[in-house]
Amino acid sequence: MTTSTRRGADGNLFAVLRAGFPADRARPAIIRPDGRTPLSYADIEEQTARMAAYLQRLGIRPGDRVAAQVEKGAATLILYLGCLRAGAVYLPLNTAYTPPEVAGFLADAEPSLFVCAPERRGGLGEAGALAGVPRVETLDAAGEGSLTAAAQASAADSAKEISRQEDDLAAILYTSGTTGRSKGAMLTHGNLASNARTLAAAWHFSGTDRLLHALPVFHSHGLFVATNVVLLTGGAMILLPRFDVDEVIRQLPAATAMMGVPTYYSRLLAHPAFTGELVRHMRLFVSGSAPLSAETFRAFAARTGHAILERYGMTETNMNTANPYDGERIAGSCGQPLPGVEIRITEPDTGRALGVGEIGMIEIRGPNVFKGYWRMAERTAAEFRDGGFFVSGDLGRLDERGYLYIVGRAKDLIISGGLNVYPKEVEAALQRLPGIADAAVIGAPHGDLGEAVVAVVVPEAGVRLSEERVIAALRPRLAAFKVPKRIVIVDGLPLNAMGKVQKSALRGRYAAIFDNPGN
Ligand code: MLC
Hints:
The chain is α/β, with parallel strands linked by helices. The chain has three domains: 7-200, ANL, N-terminal domain (Rossmann fold, 3-Layer(aba) Sandwich); 243-409, Rossmann fold; 414-509, GMP Synthetase, Chain A, domain 3 (2-Layer Sandwich). The protein has 15 helices and 25 strands. The strands form six sheets. It has a nine-stranded mixed sheet, with helices on both faces. Strands 4-3-5-6 form a four-stranded parallel sheet, with helices on one face. Strands 16-17-19-20 form a four-stranded antiparallel sheet, with no helix packed on it. Helix 5 links the parallel strand 5 and strand 6. The two termini are 44 Å apart.
């Protein structure tokens, strides 16, 4: 079952999820860490109806964007689901983005409503970020704010049910790009519904599950994979505001499954209270968003007896491959194509299909693959082959059993703690600072984050730069996770015969820069 139409004419993801809600609507859907006042499925239905009614009262029509830069909480998910219900396009923004970054997204997406943290409202206004956004509401980590007050004042039964086609937009998620310019990936109701169904079946989710949800809810991992799979199968999620290793260890006894980026698993392994006994009852640990090292996979198995299930996805495609639920989970492989998803390996320049074992571009086709980049038709066309395969930018090979191994990236990209950082964007920010003649940004191995950002900077003649001052100057411009963890100041960069910076030489030179016990 990969199409939403089989469960009725309405392709609206909310309707698809609701079809999986438990018959007993008093069952918990969202459990807060203190275990008190869980949100039941009846609460989800009522509160999302109020939210949808409120959005409709504002005049928000199907297809209009609703942007949100808010802390994680049950109310954030109500906003997401309320948007789906009203047919609005949900546009979540990383809370780490600075006002100038947010300004760029708002100008590009032209949302009808922007929801932000109360304390951010002033700063965003001053930065001119809100120019042209007709309405701004607030929502805080506890779920309070002008948005909640307005939604609660709306009658649930006044919400009009909006049906959607599979091809209609449900969400836009911004991803940075190799050019330094962010692109809005357009995900449809059909993309998200098909992936939720596929993953729920592949990973055996059911109404008895309790997913430990520590991921942020502004990326596809925490927002779509984790949330949609639970709601579709009528289970519950223990919703933590963020990944805090002590809190995760406290909550694990109440959970049946957990999803995370590799950093979560390496942090758990580094904690003395993380024992096999603690997680003996668990049925599933899923890892994604960054490569899980074979070392972490093996150490986790040795400590707990659990083989972490690694899967491969992207913002643009949702999830593509996964190691099997039953069957061999191979360290270093992200598994086989999910049902309904096609993977092929091609020669990067020509698109010619390659055979088993040959390394090439990973290309993806299926109902999970996005519709394109928001208002970037040419860019979209350039990333698809004839026949509808999306060119991922990752390099890999398939073995004779169809297991995928990712061996590198064709794009200059750093994945730090599961977050993508494009060197070009950081280099551009550095080059705009006074006193910097040239800059090259690379990823270096990092014990905690997998890779971390390093900038190699050349000062202008006669200028004395310091690492601290460069970092301080970047902070107001770049989200903190993009700010280099180290700045190395040098007299010149290694160039090839064409005058291009030799990043591989820099990567080699600084490969051990984080090789210290503080990692
Ligand atoms: C936080 N910081 C990071 C960082 N996260 N720096 C680099 N890389 C990261 N990932 C910075 C903060 O800005 C801050 O900087 C300092 O580290 C401490 O902040 P923190 O909030 O205490 O960090 P921490 O809680 O430790 O966060 C690390 C983390 C978190 C790994 C727990 O980043 C995380 O939850 N990552 C998951 C990302 C994710 O969900 N990815 C899915 C993408 S979807 P300073 O300088 O201010 O001190 C996708 C598709 C798919 O990729 O297939 O899933």
